[in-house]
Amino acid sequence: MKRIVVKVGSNVLTKANGKLDITRMSAIVDQIVWLREHDYEVILVSSGSMASGRDELKIDHKLDSVSQRQLFSALGQVKLVGLYYDLFREYGVHIGQVLTMKESFSTRGEYLNQRACMNVMLENGVLPVVNENDTTSVTELMFTDNDELAGLVASMMAADTLVILTNVDGIYNGNPADRNTRVIPMVNYDRDLSEYIQTSKSNFGRGGMITKVNIARKVADEGIKVIIANGKTDNILPDLVEKSQATMHTEFRPNPNPTTQVKKWIAHSESFAKGVVHINDKACKALESDKATSLLLVGVTAIDGDFEEGDIINVEDPSGKTIAIGRSGYSADDARKSIGAHDIKPLIHYDYLYME
Question: How far apart are CA 38 and CA 32, in angstroms?
Fold first, then answer.
């Protein structure tokens, strides 16, 4: 059985006036049920709680952006999941709600707890419906948007495929408004597409195409196929499975030699870092070589931050660029005392080091 994560964006689930599009939502549910009937385990990452809540309550006084987000998300999440419950129940499919925060991915223990929760749901035929807990995620530790959350979930759950459904047909090779512009059908996981990306964001979501492409490349690098397609196209999910070549989309080819599961977690952990390690040129060359190399304290020039053994730390080259992320083998204080030392255990062992 193949495992697929389907992310549905706000612009797929809302009409032009910002109200929830129940007809489109129902069509997405029909297609997910089709996938389940064709031997796919499906995890749904769904936006739309803000749009649901905004349509539910009219307020006669001004609220700041955080208060609006908390209020409308709290209202909307109930409505959104209730609608999914009713739509999936028509097919006898049980759903389970998973509300999470970026911080819940920051420690290995919480990460594994979330994975165990979703695994037991899937093992018992329950469809996980995942969203960010917007009522409490109101700090800089919010997800960029649900694309980032979907990427983390796909990586954590060792999915075969991540499908990001948005309101465009894929990545265009120019301005979509130009007549000669075409969708790029297939790219390698390591291809730089920045020259093609429009910087505009959607009307109802937080993220734009740059976010989608960055997440897609990172997830594909971890050995997972990523597809960006138009969620408003009729029958898009079955067509991607059965008539892939004839269906408009952009596919990111997965890395044939993906990293380990632990490194997959570390790969998404840059924003959780508790400290920064600065290294010299010699250490940079060693880490960037083809050999499996740990980061030794002899190559460290300075350490910023206050972290404990096991915390995530970023590694910067002499120019200040982050070149790696890893799990520290020392506390910050102990590491500082041993800067430049030879013949002691690595600051970051190769097994817990992810090169950017």
Answer: 10
